[in-house]
What does this fold into?
Amino acid sequence: MEQLTKLICDTEAFKSLKKQFEQNAFSHAYLVSGQDPLLLKKFLVFATALALCPKGGCFKCITCNKVFSENHVDVKKYPSEKGKYFVTDINEIIDDCYVKPFEGERKVYILNDFDTMSVVLQNKLLKTLEEPPENTVFFLGAFNTSAVLPTVKSRCQKIHLDCVDFEKVISYLVGEGINEANAEIAASFCDGMPLTAESYARDKTFFLLFDKVVECVKNLDSSRDSLRTVSQLLSLSNDFKIVLKVMETLFVQTLKAYSDEDLLLLKHKKNDILTIKQKFSQRAVYNILPLLDKAKISLENNCNQTVVADKLVLGILEVRYSCPK
Ligand SMILES: [Zn+2]
It folds into this structure.
């Protein structure tokens, strides 16, 4: 909790919000966006504590504790466990926000994943966001702000949670008890996203997968290996996108090694990266990165995983030979 508090309080987004509440010059609706979905959700909880704490966000008092333990009667969080917004939720919000707060001066509505709310429901909530009762604050969290109606956006103050520096992600993970080598891998894999990185860093199977992808890339020498590599890569996870992302992480690090070995983020995997560098020319790596993007798009369009993996591995080999060292 201490690490998380430090991480969140250190963001420009939080500092700006704190200032607004201190000066009593806050908005009644905020649209908060950010890359790390887990950090975004936690941020909204901290913002709520800030809005309700009689000491201006101490994170220690009874009020703050109630917010953190989701026991504050004046805080409502949506969507419910079902993870989806229903018309009954919106009706409930519209009716409830006119009821005075029970405990303090304000009521807070946390609307997570607002970008998943249908256009019809967003429209239904519009008037409430436009003219909310005086003592209410809405915190809308959205990963993809393009899915939020322009009319909703114009009624909210927009706050963006920036990506967190690599070093800060590492120090957060190490502070949470993760060893440095694993912290490096998780932080490189989840660039700028500390809490998503933590969720991977706590999953031992992720590191096994990572090492196996490293071996596959290191041993990819000729088209004779391609069938074996494809089946190995496919066997590592039900979600081939994760395998693709590990490959991307490795090749991005290889490019860094080409410009300056000191820039390598995966310092504990330096030997592996240097082996990959020996096999793939800089130009080859530049050409492989778009192949990984293409494969990702194909998966998003529901193409068959085996076909995508097959095409990718052959593409990588082709690039390797057409752009020799
Ligand atoms: Zn407090």
